């Protein structure tokens, strides 16, 4: 009897140690409900084929939703979506193994050259908007807004430890704790493009690929500052304080409306898909991309992003129309 | 002359007893600590995820709506992956161990191999992912298929099986082999009929550890570019697939709290799979352990 217990115990131990690694990230966050929205499509014709998608993990939830809906109408089309990051996605795109590449930033010049060298023509289509949100701790009562200059001063490495009083003299004489998304993410790339401009990020910054870790970091330290996608702020509003950003026309807080209207600048970023033109010649890929553009607005709202203006989706639709 | 000085013994008795109880307490504390951590972990995962665990969860595809999200493709994919990893690692791993222990002559070359195998066990898994990407996915053009991922995972866990099997084979008493030779058996017959049955429990322990690692690994599969969302199931080892840990990881990194609970549901399924797999190995082990 005792022996059996030992076996059960040791089995449980081995199992749980392995599960622990996967379980670590599963906490934090606030309540919200995302309601499934029905998207009707009048497709009668049943298509066959295969579509491969890879790229940004930020865009992944939108594509997951699109594929889910598309699959209900077109079960014959085998769509696979991977999420190896914007950069990783472009590597696959350049290698020619994917039809569509998700990106949370524009294609870089060096990637552009490589795609062209590989003889692949592509179209860039916008899917949704995301407002990069700069957040501080709930207890932080001194920061009421930040200008772009101040953001640069905060985040660019100066070789010294930074205190809040270094930014504005009336702020407390406390060391600032920085939390940033990992350097592989499109979020970091976008922040780099707008704020860092290829200067090194402040050395004390804690970098994590998991934005929920950043949320916890900022929520747990009065002197912390961090940035990440709008959805992570919205889900954790009760734990974080968002900082209005002054891009030159007075401080603007990221909200659904200010991101949609483009008023929240320059930290609003568009999310893209890059489609191989050759694949668009296949009817199933064309129909899929068309379906994506027609439904991206509603579906991106569902998963926590902000929809584009209708004209922008129409512009995308007319782009692919010409490539059919 | 008195052989035992009773005063002396009495004087030393209490510190000795005290020392014994201190160490007993220390070891009990170590065990208890592991059990407490385990209990907290299980409690958290189960209370968080149990609400999502139903038949529909196992039967559905991932969804943007946490209530409807499921793990069908990931669960089936993980089973397929194990279907490739288990036979490949067992055949290659046990084969290597038998060669190194029974056939190879003990020289500098074999000890070099030995050191390298032990070192391989400590190589970060992502390195194996990069190797798999270059060799299996790209060079052999297997794509992100079950076979490519299975072979990559096999490479990752092979050192564990080899080292464990070697230990097991080494611990079979020499007398058993000599008796077998004495009865006129040749080397092959001795290995198959004497050494292997005796070493099997140890080999299975190694297999449990190795497969448990393979089932929970995410990093190398992410490097291979395995998809996360698939609306179809693999029909052969050359088809695309996805696995549970990748799906769980994706859910934990979502902003919505509900997805973290869905992830916990996935973790419970993964845990159950692990326990079932391990129990099978433990049962086989117990059956054979009675022979010696």
From TrEMBL, chain A:
CDD domains: PBP2_phosphate_like_2 (cd13654). Belongs to the PstS family. InterPro entries: PBP_domain, Phos-bd, Phosphate_ABC_transporter. It comes from the Bacteria. NCBIfam families: ptsS_2. Residues 41-293 form the PBP domain. The complex is composed of two ATP-binding proteins (PstB), two transmembrane proteins (PstC and PstA) and a solute-binding protein (PstS). Keywords: Cell membrane, Lipoprotein, Membrane, Palmitate, Phosphate transport, Signal, Transport. It is found in: Cell membrane. Transmembrane segments: none annotated. It comes from Cytobacillus stercorigallinarum. It is a lipid-anchor. This is Phosphate-binding protein. Gene3D superfamilies: Periplasmic binding protein-like II. Involved in the system for phosphate transport across the cytoplasmic membrane. Part of the ABC transporter complex PstSACB involved in phosphate import. Residues 1-25 form the signal peptide. Its main location: membrane.
UniProtKB/TrEMBL annotation, chain B:
It comes from the Bacteria. Keywords: Cell membrane, Membrane, Transmembrane, Transmembrane helix, Transport. It is found in: Cell membrane. The chain crosses the membrane at residues 21-46, 79-100, 120-140, 146-169, 190-212, 218-238, 259-284. Pfam families: BPD_transp_1. It is a multi-pass membrane protein. The keyword Transmembrane applies. SUPFAM superfamilies: MetI-like (SSF161098). Residues 75-280 form the ABC transmembrane type-1 domain. Its main location: membrane. NCBIfam families: 3a0107s02c. Belongs to the binding-protein-dependent transport system permease family. CysTW subfamily. This is Phosphate transport system permease protein PstA. It comes from Cytobacillus stercorigallinarum. The gene is pstA.
């Amino acid at each position: 009897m005792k022996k059996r217990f030992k076996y059960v115990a040791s089995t449980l131990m081995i199992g749980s140690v392995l599960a622990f690694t996967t379980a670590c990230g599963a906490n934090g966050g606030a309540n919200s409900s995302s309601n499934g929205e029905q998207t009707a499509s009048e497709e009668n014709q049943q298509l066959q084929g295969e579509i491969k998608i890879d790229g940004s993990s930020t865009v992944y939830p939108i594509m997951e939703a699109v594929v889910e809906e598309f699959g209900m109408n077109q079960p014959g089309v085998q769509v696979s979506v991977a999420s190896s990051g914007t950069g990783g996605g472009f590597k696959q795109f350049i290698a020619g193994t994917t039809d569509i590449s998700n990106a949370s930033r524009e294609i870089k010049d060096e990637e552009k050259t490589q795609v062209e060298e590989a003889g692949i023509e592509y179209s860039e289509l916008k899917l949704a908007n995301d407002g990069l949100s700069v957040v501080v701790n709930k207890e932080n009562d001194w920061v009421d807004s930040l200008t772009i200059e101040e953001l640069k001063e905060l985040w660019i490495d100066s070789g010294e430890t930074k205190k809040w009083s270094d930014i504005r003299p009336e702020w407390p004489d406390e060391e600032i704790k920085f939390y940033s998304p990992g350097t592989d993410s499109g979020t970091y790339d976008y922040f780099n493009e707008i704020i860092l401009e290829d200067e090194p990020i402040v050395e004390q910054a804690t970098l994590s690929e998991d934005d929920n870790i950043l949320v916890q970091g900022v929520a747990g330290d009065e002197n912390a500052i961090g940035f990440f996608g709008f959805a992570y702020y919205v889900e954790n509003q009760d734990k974080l304080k968002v900082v209005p950003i002054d891009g030159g026309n007075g401080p603007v807080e990221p909200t659904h409306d200010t991101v949609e209207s483009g008023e929240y600048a320059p930290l609003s970023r568009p999310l893209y898909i890059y489609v191989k033109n050759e694949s668009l010649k296949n009817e199933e890929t064309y129909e899929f991309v068309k379906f994506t553009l027609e439904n991206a607005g509603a579906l991106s709202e569902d998963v926590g992003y902000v929809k584009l203006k209708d004209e922008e989706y129409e512009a995308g639709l007319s782009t692919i129309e010409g490539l059919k | 002359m008195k052989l035992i000085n009773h005063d002396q013994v009495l004087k030393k008795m209490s510190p000795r007893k005290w020392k014994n109880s201190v160490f007993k307490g220390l070891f009990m504390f170590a065990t208890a600590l592991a059990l407490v951590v385990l209990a907290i972990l299980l409690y958290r995962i189960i209370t968080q995820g149990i609400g999502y665990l139903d038949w529909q969860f196992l039967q559905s595809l991932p969804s943007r709506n946490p209530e409807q999200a499921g793990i069908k493709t990931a669960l089936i994919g993980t089973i397929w992956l194990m279907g490739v990893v288990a036979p490949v690692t067992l055949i290659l791993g046990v084969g290597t161990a038998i060669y190194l222990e029974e056939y190879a002559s003990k020289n500098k070359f074999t000890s070099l191999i030995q050191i390298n195998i032990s070192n391989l066990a400590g190589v970060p898994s992502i390195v194996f992912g990069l190797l798999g990407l270059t060799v299996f996915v790209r060079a052999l053009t297997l794509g992100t298929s079950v076979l490519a991922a299975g072979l990559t995972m096999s490479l990752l866990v092979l050192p564990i099986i080899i080292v464990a099997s070697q230990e097991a084979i080494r611990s079979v008493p020499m007398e058993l082999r000599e008796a077998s030779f004495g009865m006129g058996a040749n080397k092959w017959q001795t290995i198959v009929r004497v050494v292997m049955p005796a070493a099997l429990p140890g080999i299975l322990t190694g297999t449990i550890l190795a497969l448990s690692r393979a089932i929970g690994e995410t990093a190398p599969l992410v490097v291979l570019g395995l998809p996360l969302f698939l609306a179809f199931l693999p029909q052969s080892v050359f088809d695309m697939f996805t696995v549970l840990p990748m799906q769980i990881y994706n859910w934990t990194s979502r902003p919505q709290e509900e997805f973290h609970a869905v992830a916990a549901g996935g973790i419970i399924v993964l845990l159950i799979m692990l326990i079932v797999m391990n129990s099978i190995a433990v049962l086989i082990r117990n059956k054979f352990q009675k022979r010696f």
